[in-house]
Amino acid sequence: MLSAPCRQAHGLRRHHRLWRNVTSLDSRAALLRLYAELDGPNWYDNSGWNQPDSDPCCYLIADGSCVSWFGVQCYNITILAPNLKYDPPFVVDGIFINANGLKGELTSTICEISWFLNELALVDMPITGSLPSCIAHLPNLHFLYVSSLHFDPAPLPPWIGSMHLIGLSLASNSFYGPIPHEYEALAQTALNVFDLSGNNINGTLPAWIDDLRCVSLISLRSNDLTGGIRGGIFRAPFIALVDFSQNMLTGTVPDTFSATSFLGTLDLSFNSLNGSIPPSLGVALQATAMNVTLTENNLVSGLDVLFLPGSRAVTIDVSANDLRGSLPHHMDNAVNLTSLILRANALNGTIPSCLGKLHKLRVLDLSDNVFSAIDPNWRIYDMNSLDFLSLRHNMLSTAPPLFFLNAGRDANGNLFCSWVSPLTFVDLSSNPFSTFGAPSPVSTRGGEWQAVWDDAVAVRGVGALPHVMGAAEPFITASRHNGMYTISELFQSLVVSSLPNSQTLVSCILTAGAVNNRLQTLVLSDLGIEGELPSLLFSAFPSLSHLDLSHNRISSKLPSSSVVYPFYLPYPLEYLNLANNSLTGDIPLIFGLALESNLRYFSLVNNNMTAESGQLPSFLVPTYDSQLDFTDQHYYCPSIQDQNLRSTVLVDPTYYRRSLCRCAQGYFGRVLEDGSGCKPTYSYCQNSRECVLRSNAAFSNVVAPLRGYWPAPALDNATLFIRCSDVPQLDDTIACNPLGPNDQRSALDEFAKGVQCKPRPDGPGLSCSPPTSVCRPGSEGRLCSVCSDDYYMSPQGCIPCPLSHQSLGWTVISILATLIVVVVALQLRSQETSGHRLKLRRQFHEARSIRGFFSTFWPEMTQVFLLWVLIPVALTPYDLDGNASAFIYSSVFFYMIYSLLRKSIPLDRAARHAAERETRTRSSDMRAPLLGSLNAPRAGGSARSSAADPNKSMGGFLGDTPVRDVQQVLAVSQGLFKSFLVFFQTLAVITGTVLPPTETLSYLVEFNNLVITSLRNKCRFPSFHYQSGFAVIMWVPVVVAILLLIARCVSSLWFAVGKLREAWSARGSTDASTRRNVASARQAMRASAMGQTLFSTGVLTLYILYFPLLVSYFSLFSCSSDPLTGVSYLRAAPYIRCWGGDVWLSMIIVGSTLMGVYTLALFAIFGRFQRHKRLGRLNHIDVRTKYSILYDSYRPGAAGFELILTARRIAIAAVVGVAPVTSAFTAVNVVFILAGALGIQGWLAPFNTSLGNLMETISLVALLCIYILSRSILRLFSSNDTAAVDLDGNVEVNTLVSLVQSLSFFTILLYWFFGTLPFLRLIPFIRKRNLRIMRRLGLGVHYDSNAASPALRSGATVVGAGIRNSYHAATDEAASSELGDVNGMPVVVAKSAVDTEPQGCL
Questions:
Q1: What does DSSP say about strands 72-76 and 346-351: parallel, antiparallel, or unpaired?
Q2: Angle 1357-1379/963-992 helices, nearest 10 degrees?
Q3: How confident is the model at residue 883 (pLDDT cuts 50, 70, 90)?
Q4: Closest listed residue to residue 108, CA positions, set 71, 136, 143, 81
Q5: Distance from first CA to last CA of the chain, Å, rounded?
Q6: Which residues pair with 1285 in a beta bridge?
Q7: Distances from the Cα of 96 to the Cα of 122, 136, 306, angstroms
Q8: What residue ranges in 1161-1279 does DSSP mark as E strands?
Q9: Tell me: the pLDDT tens digits for 209-230?
Q10: Backbone phi, then psi, for 260, in 5-degree steps?
Q11: Chain mean position to CA 815
């Protein structure tokens, strides 16, 4: 109760100058200015303030009620002046805003709010500046609470001493210096609250503090005050709280406490007070309920005075002093005590049982003393309120009984079990438990406990005792070892029971534990426990949230769950410390599930655990934001967290074999399993293989990676330099670190503009600069293997896109031109089926003229013109160089010559009459001879039996050149085409990944590596990368098949329409039936011929594309491991992760599916071919039309050689695609395959001409030589100091590259020469000379009409095909002349369409 003067002072509020007629509306302007100055719109709650037209004391809210603005306190002034008129009747008399986000500088606006302002409270906000001095002039301000703001450091404002304050708080505002002497005037006021805590106030306690007559709360906590405590403040009549903690006060605790005071909280902790606890404090405790905190001082005695009879102490904390002696035995006098903390003293002796009578006690901390025993009569489990118990770090030899297991049977004989203990926190760690005292009267006998566990083992049938307790870790043993003890013995001391039957103890514990036990924290560290980690420990305490078993001898593995022995961690478990034990094995999944739920700290450090895989489990991830430093071995390791980055998991780096560790600052290398591998910078770069070190002392440890070396897995955290490519790179195509040191072979202290790396000043790793020099312009990503926008990948790296690529119009035009070229090319190679055009051609051969040539061959001339015009348009977006263009145009030229010669073979009347005789004998009516003549060529062997005269002259421009010679040229050209195709594809595969990508060889790789070719699409589609190109080329055969199917459907529809048209035109004629039959037969044969042509086109497409597709597919299995992280990446695209990455998985699924389909299709074709071979139908016109690519190039008896050739191509694709290019396995197998192919070629000589066998032999020899030379280049490159190849500066490499280029082009020129030679032979004046080289190659002239050239004698199938084609055309002509014309249209012309597909592969 306050005295009269204090009550009078409290009544001073609002009684001054009431004659001033002011209201709340007069405060609105100042409040709005304050709102603007302190960032009002961003306050957490600005209700009312954001309505500037409202009354600060009354604004309407949603429910219609009237409230004041947030933080504004108002007073009804009419209470004090009932006779005066006020409108509105409110004034603003207080501002109280706490933690509302006010930000800015506090100005004098705060003083303009209201003359009636009685209270100003601004707490916990980022307000800056200083406290305005105008506050001293607010006459009615009695409460000033300005705390936890961001004021600038300054002394305490002295003008506060002139104010008539009741409450003052300036806590936590960065004030410094002594307490101003002006504050002495406050002692004469009604000051009730005085709080200066949390500043930097120094000096001594001022004497006037003892004279504060009305104070009830004084707090000077957390300052820098020195000197002693006078003690008069403890006699203040209304004092309720004194807090002088966390200063530097010295001396003794004053013995001035009063038995009549109201002191409820005394906190003198964290000072340097000495002496004894004063007796008057005990007397004061008898008078009032008090919380006493004297922790962290130097007190030595006086503990007994706190427990005088009638003590009303509520909490006592005298921890961390130097109290000695034993605990008093009258501690039960403090019956109201709820917390007793005697931690960290020197108390000894026996812990008395009188503590058990403190039934309100909730917290008991006796840790860090030297207690040696516990009174056996102290029944902790009977203390119903005890929640926290710590006996850590004493000298106790016997564990106290903490739990009482009440068990028995009810009237029905059912077992009931319940725990009797309210404890939620138990810490028994660091005690030398070794013996066990006499059990309490209700406990089982000591010897019975081991029998209890043995009975439980027998009942559950699980073998050894540790398995009864749980899973598999080092916490329990079944017997003592070297003075240690088991879990069963420890549990014996912790649990007493009334259980009459020991066999049911375990099930009783499990049943009771799952229902009633409240224990949340259990600390059993440093107790010397050994054995396995018991599951019973977790089952008995299902509410456990913190478990500490560290610093013991727990061994074996962590427990895991199984169907037979399920194991579960308590769901509330948040903290589990198993550090400093002897655990082994891996971390089971059950702990990962706990991390997913509530477990937030899991420590396994200083154990013997090692993951079998050497990697973290899937539920753990490393993070380098925080790390473990091993400075003695110069490396650091990441912190480990769960996948959600919410939990901390501490494991030894040996658990994951240090695979995630990295070298520390100034060191390079890869951390090995034993912790070695990190070498200093100077030793790592001294051989100048990957980097060079600046030798100037002023720039020590500055490292420059050589050109072609990746400077860092992450640019600013390099620990290892990686060579970007295993194959040679030209100087001007280096993508990784393209600048490098200025001169790699001279002074090491001279640097250019390349990447330079220095040890990071703020941590381990490197800081590399400049970032723009890491990759060549146009390249980015890992190993600079990704092309930037407006660049596309080529064999020479990323090059700028041509302007034509940027236009969608050019892309569309190119696609249309390509489609037209394909259609025209197919039309050019098809046989003529029109009877009228066959007649014109025969007339031209008999009497040639310029006019006859144009009138006869204008369709062919038009087709040739379209090809030469449209091919450049189709190739415009590809920006081809001269070599590629020359290759394409020369191929087109040979194709045109071949096709025109194919069409130029004249028809033979002898074949016509033979066909007529054959067909007339098969039927006597008109339709039968007609259909018989049409179907005659389908009979096996009929084509050869009716062959045209091979000695007949061609006529026309070829003069008297026999038909045989033209047929022979076609046969030789077909064989050379197949040989060149195989050579060209194999050459690119075996050299494209070894040789430097020079311009003269790049087109070889680009034409054969379809993925690189398709990557040009990135110019049009920036997101088009390697995986996109791979998908596109893998679908090419499917797209071709779809287009062929569409063409088949369209042609069938066209022929059906033609049939209806002819039938309609025959209406009403006398021979209408005959004409309908003829039309039906003609259109059916045309449809059949078109189907065979499209099928053969599909077979040819698959034959050409299968090999490059197979190489691209096998490249998916060619991966290289990053030397730092161990992650595998695709060699063809080093930014794509192998074996599990999403991109790689999608590529492997698509590639495997499509490649399987293509392989099945190819071998199905081979199967059909072999079936026809067994049936002797290889000369059948249908078989030849569909499958000519597979056997027309070979002599009779060697038609199955294509299987050997295909096996060779598949083997090379597998070896080169999968194995590393630098491995000896690749080299040995490629040489073996090529050498074996050369031996088979020499033995079989499978081709149908001497020229074909000769060129195949030359190509194999060339491939062997080229590959051996390429491997030599690779060997020189691997042993070189740099990743670049300087063809001008390196004589050896330059010589070898020149040899490879020369040999490659010489072989290609031989193919060109020998491919031209047969066509030159057709020129009349060359043919007449009958050159020796022609005769040697089987191309000589044979004047004997009965003699055949070597090509024909060896079974040149094109010759036979040409004779048959002449026969079919003659048959058509004979039928037409026999039947005549019907309404001006030839009756029979369709059968020759069966042979529209050329018999070669061109």
A1: unpaired
A2: 130
A3: low
A4: 136
A5: 118
A6: 730
A7: 6, 18, 41
A8: none
A9: 988 889 999 999 999 999 999 8
A10: -110, 5
A11: 38
